[in-house]
Amino acid sequence: DGGITQSPKYLFRKEGQNVTLSCEQNLNHDAMYWYRQDPGQGLRLIYYSQIVNDFQKGDIAEGYSVSREKKESFPLTVTSAQKNPTAFYLCASSALSRTGELFFGEGSRLTVL
Amino acid sequence: DAKTTQPNSMESNEEEPVHLPCNHSTISGTDYIHWYRQLPSQGPEYVIHGLTSNVNNRMASLAIAEDRKSSTLILHRATLRDAAVYYCILRDADDYKLSFGAGTTVTVRA
Fold it and tell me: Is the dihedral of CA A37, A41, A42, A48 positive or negative?
């Protein structure tokens, strides 16, 4: 089935450790996105990419890094510089079109102990 | 920053219609209006989108004001499964920075 796969679904890490969240899509979409969601809050954009080997900072990029080496993959690294990394992380993809809908993964819940 | 504003919450009774407003006063002529909803502990899902004319699909209807500065998502008969956070966003062909606001939390009473 076509869709977006995020892994892991749950992740526990100690403070100060970098962690990488995986996002893979088989929808042949050019655009991919990473969002962060805190309890009871909306989605905040971390990074986005429109094409392989290119990406842009979103509204809250500090403490995060991404790569886009393949069209279908857009991993997010939460670095030790991120002050409060515990959150629900969502990956999405879409076609490069004003009418293109966003497809979201099921999310990765990161807890820093 | 999000280019849309929505009420924080709305309540409805089961099987009654729900009208969810969204203001987008700075909308450009080429922006499409998209709506998504997010069930608890899940990723958001697409609901509907439109440009100028009202739109209907199996999930909802979208009514767009004549000046396009506001729109309303209409759930015709709310069910308990419609309890979710609903987001309104704008999509432009040249801007792929898609920011979501806090959305509207819809509560459906049985």
Answer: negative
